[in-house]
């Protein structure tokens, strides 16, 4: 038995294949537009993506974006190139697309990717603050911003016991107008600071602790009252932080307590736990 296929049938099949290819390509192409200013104002740049691979922003757009139009798509934005550092998922139903400062990402985006779909590749790893909110998220992100400068691994905030311990002690200090260490089993940093809300108070506290860094002598390592808060923040072996915040109405400041596990500032261990900034 012989089969005969006419040229017109081959051409027709080819046209159908080409049309289907372009139709499918168009279906998977997703647009993202980044804007220089809030409320979708200022200069803008648009990208069309067809997969969830990481994409770095052009150099002149690095740390320049204040709002984003996802065109109904889902993206993950990242603090550093190569989709590293802290991240934020921006999708229909999430907040502050037009005002990235409200989610802590104003002028901080260096790379991005489409949210992974089933079968389209690996899901981007969540940041250490993934699943956290409020002061806990701020505490973890602020600590890791400074820890990365000193090549210390990211710290996590997913131990509820440490958070509860820090919060109870912050409330005790605030309610009794005291300011002294607890002597508990965790490492501990304390701060009395201003701020318009709890999140701002935590940022101020972590920044204050880290600002001791210029006084630290990397050639003559060891504990010092002038740098002990800094070394606790960047201590390499510490894996978890807990945060507590309470308002002291008498002193009119926020009491901020950070607990660290395992604790740092152990004599003889500074050289392998506190590195110069890179």
TrEMBL record:
Coiled-coil portions: none
Protein's UniProt keywords contain Repeat: yes
Any one of the GO CC terms: extracellular region
Domain Beta/gamma crystallin 'Greek key': 31-115
A Pfam family the protein falls into: CAP
Keyword tags: Repeat
Region (Disordered): 115-135
Gene Ontology terms describing biological process: cell-cell adhesion
UniProt domain SCP: residue ranges: 134-268
Transmembrane portions of the chain: none
Database matches in InterPro entries: Allrgn_V5/Tpx1_CS, Beta/gamma_crystallin, Ca_cell_adhesion_N_dom, CAP_dom, CAP_sf, CRISP-related, G_crystallin-like, SCP_GAPR1-like
Gene3D superfamilies, sorted: CAP (3.40.33.10), Crystallins (2.60.20.10)
Entry's family note: Belongs to the beta/gamma-crystallin family.
UniProt-recorded name of the protein: Protein PRY1
Source organism per UniProt: Orchesella cincta
């Amino acid at each position: 038995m012989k089969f005969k296929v006419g040229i017109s049938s081959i051409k027709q099949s080819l046209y159908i294949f080409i049309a289907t290819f372009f139709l499918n390509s168009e279906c998977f192409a997703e647009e993202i537009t980044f804007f220089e200013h809030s409320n979708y104002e200022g200069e803008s740049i648009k990208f069309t993506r067809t997969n969830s691979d990481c994409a770095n922003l052009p150099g002149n757009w690095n740390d320049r974006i204040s709002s984003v139009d996802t065109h109904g798509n889902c993206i993950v934005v990242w603090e550093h190139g190569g989709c590293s550092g802290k991240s934020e998922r921006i999708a229909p139903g999430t907040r502050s697309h037009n005002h990235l400062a409200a989610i802590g990402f104003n002028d901080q985006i260096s790379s991005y990717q489409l949210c992974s779909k089933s079968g389209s590749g690996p899901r981007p790893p969540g940041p250490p603050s993934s699943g956290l909110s409020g002061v806990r998220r701020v505490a973890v992100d602020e600590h890791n911003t400074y820890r990365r400068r000193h090549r210390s691994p990211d710290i996590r905030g997913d131990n509820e016991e440490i958070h509860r311990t820090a919060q109870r002690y912050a409330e005790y200090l605030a309610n009794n107008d005291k300011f002294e260490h607890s002597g508990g089993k965790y490492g501990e940093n304390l701060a009395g600071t201003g701020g318009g809300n709890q999140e701002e108070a935590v940022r101020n506290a972590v920044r204050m602790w880290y600002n001791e860094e210029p006084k630290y002598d990397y050639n003559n390592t060891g504990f010092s009252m002038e740098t002990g808060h800094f070394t606790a923040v960047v201590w390499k072996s510490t894996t978890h932080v807990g945060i507590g915040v309470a308002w002291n109405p008498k002193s009119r400041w926020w009491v901020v307590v950070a607990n660290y596990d395992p604790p740092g500032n152990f004599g003889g261990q500074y050289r392998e736990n506190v590195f110069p900034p890179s």
